[in-house]
Predict the 3D structure of the following.
Amino acid sequence: MVELIFQLCVEGNGPGKIARMLKEREIPTPGTIMFQRTGQTSRYFLDDPYRWNAATVQRILEQDTYLGRTTNFKTAKLSYKSKKTVINPPDKWAVFENTHEAIIDKEAWEIVRKSREHRRCPTKMGEMGLFSGLAYCADCGAKLYHHRSITLTKEQESYICSNYQSRKKCTAHYIRAVVLEQLVLQNLQRVVAYAQEDEKELVRCVMENKTAVQKAEQERRISELDRIIQQLYEDRVAGALSAERFAKLSEGYEKEQEALKQSAKDLQSVVAAIETQAVNVQSFLKIVRKYAAPTELTPALLREFVEKVVVHAPDKSSGHRVQRIDVHYNFIGEIDFSSEYSRDSKQTTA
């Protein structure tokens, strides 16, 4: 039962839909199973032993005990005088690994966790887009809205920036669903083939990309701090800041900047430590080994491999409509060749 629920979630189904599917398949609820084992009737419905609901499914998807671990101190009481229970933050939990046999592997758990973070809404027709909850705008970071109606054919379905759709706060970033599906499948096929051909090279490529991303972020922050400090000096000269306030702010920013510069120098040693473990890459390779050569982008395949797809605004400067997407994969992120370009003459100008 638990394995089935997690697999259905990996395939892109939400708790409500999973509950309906379990009921249709006549899967006994936890309350029904408890009644069959112990005779307890607190959560058993005689007239409906398959009465699943979204809340029950959600609780199961959040139970890390299925990973073979025991987690204590998730909750606490304010005092011995109070019966009120509060939820502790994760840093106060006590986690003990391998206390019993795992039912769910860590790869499935991580995919489900990310899927639950990016909850999706069905269209007005009650359908769920293949990329709903996975496609994002490259400019504003908002999710892309799945545009579908009874008057549109499959070829005409599209994705549009939700900020543009609701408040016109961004540009449309319009892309046809079939085009997005084709581009992601092409990219996925290349990544899988690359990983199957040389796993060690994939590890090197991923680590190299992580180094570049981390270094670029550090350099961006150092430059940003330079601008802030310069502005502080200008405000001090203009009399907008007191000497005491200026000294306090500038000291804090300069310490952060120095720490970042030192961190940038130590980056290679950090990467060397990451390379000795490469846990995330191995998790990705475990998924790769399940698929010989994907020929169709199913919901399950997409959710297992892809963390998110970033859609850029179309570029028409060349006289043709060219649009870029970036594919970010579960466990390894974006790699060197994970950008795809659409030169789709059939797309509507937006």
Q: What stands out?
A: The first strand starts at residue 70 and ends at 72. The chain has a mean pLDDT of 77.
